[in-house]
Amino acid sequence: MNDMPLLVIEDLHVKVAEKPILKGVTFSMNRGEVHVLLGQNGSGKSTLAYAIAGHPSYVVTQGKVLFAGEDLLAMEPDERARKGIFLAFQAPVAVPGVSVANFLRTAYQARFHGKVAPATDKTGGQSSGFSVIAFQKKLMAAMKSLKIDPALASRYLNDGFSGGEKKQMEVLQMALLQPALAIMDETDSGLDLDKLQIIGEGAARLSQEHNISMLVITHYKRLLKYIQPSHVHLLLDGRIAVSRGPALVDELEEKGFEHIRDTYARKSA
Questions:
Q1: Region 132-142: what's the mean pLDDT?
Q2: Residue 153 DSSP one-character state
Q3: Order of strands across the sheet with 231-236?
Q4: pTM, full prediction
């Protein structure tokens, strides 16, 4: 049913290396919505992202997570990805020996065809319903749309790439995989203004064109000039202290985290 929330998180507790990080997170997202998650370092923002994606080091000790009505916590990480969950990493890793084109082809086949077929065969890769030629055209079109140098397709993934190029690779994956939910974990960190605009505008356009829900984790307002949220959540001490509209971003910039923390503490007393 398309009218049900895409993501429902209820009383989620997560620990890392036996240390409790999330201590009862609850919120939900509808399809096509853009939510922003703000918070100080160590508040649990990235922990929430990795827990949703299924990283084994992030252990859920309590609560539930539903994705399109299904129990997300019962799924392995690869199944979550095939269902349409995408995580753009804060610090994308280099993969020497694997070209951008081959990496993306493998991910695309796994997402839409259920298995990885050989890169070439006598039918041009079409025996499994997958066409290498068609994929190459799709890849080049996506790179052009996102203003990415096409020469990067033949280079090893993120190997020797600048910080901006690495983040562009994350958005390129989003363009090809068209997830239902894209989690952007501080994608704006380390970007100059030109790359920020390219990546921000590209991600916003993808969200609108493909009805992609987005959970944007950030410290700064500057990315939100391009990716405009409908909901803003403030995570403090492992819990969501406040959930409001976009005006909360301006309030935080003006008054700071401690003001919100004090206000939240008084209301909770």
A1: 94
A2: G
A3: 85-88, 181-185, 213-217, 34-38, 231-236, 239-244
A4: 0.88
